[in-house]
Amino acid sequence: xxxxxxxxxxxxxxxxxxxxxxxxxxxxxxxxxxxxxxxxxxxxxxxxxxxxxxxxxxxxxxxxxxxxxxxxxxxxxxxxxxxxxxxxxxxxxxxxxxxxxxxxxxxxxxxxxxxxxxxxxxxxxxxxxxxxxxxxxxxxxxxxxxxxxxxxxxxxxxxxxxxxxxxxxxxxxxxxxxxxxxxxxxxxxxxxxxxxxxxxxxxxxxxxxxxxxxxxxxxxxxxxxxxxxxxxxxxxxxxxxxxxxxxxxxxxxxxxxxxxxxxxxxxxxxxxxxxxxxxxxxxxxxxxxxxxxxxxxxxxxxxxxxxxxxxxxxxxxxxxxxxxxxxxxxxxxxxxxxxxxxxxxxxxxxxxxxxxxxxxxxxxxxxxxxxxxxxxxxxxxxxxxxxxxxxxxxxxxxxxxxxx
Length: 404
Prior knowledge:
Shape: globular
Low-confidence stretches: 1-13, 146-156, 374-386, 396-404
CATH topology of the largest domain: hpI Integrase, Chain A
Distance between the termini: 57 Å
Strand content: under 5%
CATH class of the largest domain: Mainly Alpha
Number of domains: 2
Structural class: mainly alpha
């Protein structure tokens, strides 16, 4: 930390974004939230930027950012890299938050920002599960269903079904959790992904193996929706200002969640208590337990199912442009990361070690032994991932899932 403090510079009052009406100027973090929402950034971006600004101010002993400049920012970023040992992506995320703070919130020219070093983005190969590993994880997820609170409708958060949905469509975790009833088209066997990464919509296939399980899930969810309507519960959250344009849309069945939470919760942006979808961390914890029980030691996460989806499609012979559209990538170079699996065995090149006689590394056996088979190049794989084999196990009663 800097030993001496520079003289404080005059602090112009923070201003709300255009259209905001308030008698008092906003506090620093409130101004950050207002500017993020004015630019229609996601809730996750808002939470991340607020957290980094708070950490930056606390690092410099609660001094106002207008009193700080390039040396203080470099000291904070250097502390993250050396003391906290953060990854390059986290380093860049913190720098982006500080750039947003000075340029968009404080309206301060920062020509010295170009002199601050930026870590190079590292290319990492994705973790991919083999098809038999996917089967083992999904089988464990079938046993991890939790019932709704006592007194509520008979509803189950079908973790096995949700895992199959992520693997069978290549959706991201939040894209699957935010699915509405209206987004599933059984007639066309398609699912519309709304507001994906980059605020883009896209169309993905509805696996035939999931058609019947999804209909059963919607039947269970409809009972939950009817119970909410009978209890006079608040409508579900709608994007943008649709709740004012269509006041009763949030109460309709078509806007209800496909995977709703078991209990109502507080809206993260202060809209009161309402029923949201299943929390993302809830499924992440269940998925980690499923990996342990399945005996898989790979550092996998729910996003690994998306990597496995793309990898298995490429192994099945589908062209990379088709996979790009299904994944929603803006550039095909992003999809090219999955082509590493097509270079099995170093691009189908057999190692010279495999040509050596086994006697070079082991003494001759006491008795004559048949010669071991020579290593072969890996066989190409052209069959689609068999989703029919991934159909969920039949539903079990709550008493069987949760013994007394």
